[in-house]
């Protein structure tokens, strides 16, 4: 079966700089795929190549088995939504949505009906005659989304569309985008640097780093089984503890911590994990905290307690190089007696940890 959308060996070079190195990706029809990564990782460049705004140095993009690289951007019939809404300020909402339909030669009656459908889809009935300047940022972004979907494109590209909005409004529009995707079943490629946004919206996520894709998977796959330290750092909150690798047995390692403790059966990542130095990943919400010191666990003292709305974050000084952050839900047995300076013990399940070769670290910048 021919893949719906296939990116093969795409690279883009600007002078001596290779912005995108070798991107390969297959996207199913109706899938919501997010390109996630920091600034300069190549995610937006890849999107612009798809849109036709940039030409790749090498590689190909196939839509339903046919290359689109020799098709001008305005003839690819691909929808695009930007961070800046790019609405025509002198046109009304209805006229903005109708614009791409007029360009395509739709009849007046068909345009009128389609504008009505799009306003209903984005829940802006009654706003047809309003000018963009009289609307909120969230409403303008809905208009931009309606305009991009009006001509029923096979693919919708979205480049950081919500980064200019405040957190509450951003979450509201995220919900609307997910609803619209489910209702229209349009294929969406979405660019963001916000991991929470990617996790909330996506069917799958492609994590970009330094012009390549480090890993592709569902949010749960990336969180539970990161293939590189960069992915582990970028998806979710993390504690990284430097350790010595005592031995390696298949995909598991025996590690020695700086306080003398040895832990066995730690899942490893990388194709050539070996003896030497390694980073141990501990997720803050998967560490258990108990009052007092106990044998066989990581002892420490509370440095700081921070209330963060839906949980409490506790920073614990240990005999390791850096404090360990622990995330406790409300109702946890230890919360009532916690105070800075108090002795505590930290424990965790070995199966929920991860080990990465220390020299393979990719900085998250």
Class per helix and strand makeup = alpha+beta
Instruction: Write the CATH homologous superfamily of the largest domain.
Output: P-loop containing nucleotide triphosphate hydrolases
Average pLDDT, to the nearest integer?
92
CATH topology category name of the largest domain? Rossmann fold
Poorly predicted spans: 360-365
Strand content: 25-35%
Radius of gyration: 25 Å
CATH architecture name of the largest domain: 3-Layer(aba) Sandwich
- Give the total of beta strands: 20
Q: How many discrete domains?
A: 2
Strands side by side in the biggest sheet? 6-7-8-3-9-10
- Shape from CA axes? globular
* Share in helix: 10-25%
N-to-C SSE string, H for helix and E for strand: EEEHEEEHHHEHEHEEHHEEEEEEEEEE
How many H/I helices? Answer: 8
Report the major sheet: 6 strands, mixed
Q: What is the C-level CATH assignment of the largest domain?
A: Alpha Beta
For the termini, the CA-CA separation is 39 Å
In short:
By secondary structure, the chain is α+β, with helices and mostly antiparallel strands. It has eight helices and 20 strands.
Would you mind describing this structure in some detail?
By secondary structure, this protein is α+β, with helices and mostly antiparallel strands. It has 2 domains: 5-229, P-loop containing nucleotide triphosphate hydrolases (Rossmann fold, 3-Layer(aba) Sandwich); 237-360, OB fold (Dihydrolipoamide Acetyltransferase, E2P) (Beta Barrel), CATH 2.40.50.100. The chain has helices at 43-51, 93-103, 108-121, 137-149, 167-184, 195-201, 219-224, 229-234; strands at residues 5-14, 17-27, 32-36, 58-63, 66-67, 79-81, 155-159, 187-192, 204-209, 212-217, 239-249, 252-256, 262-269, 276-282, 287-291, 298-307, 312-317, 324-328, 343-348, 354-357. A 6-stranded mixed β-sheet has the order 6-7-8-3-9-10, with helices on both faces. A 5-stranded mixed barrel has the order 11-12-13-20-14. The chain has a 5-stranded antiparallel β-sheet with strand order 15-19-16-17-18, with no helix packed on it. Helix 3 (108-121) packs across helix 4. The longest helix has 18 residues, at 167-184.
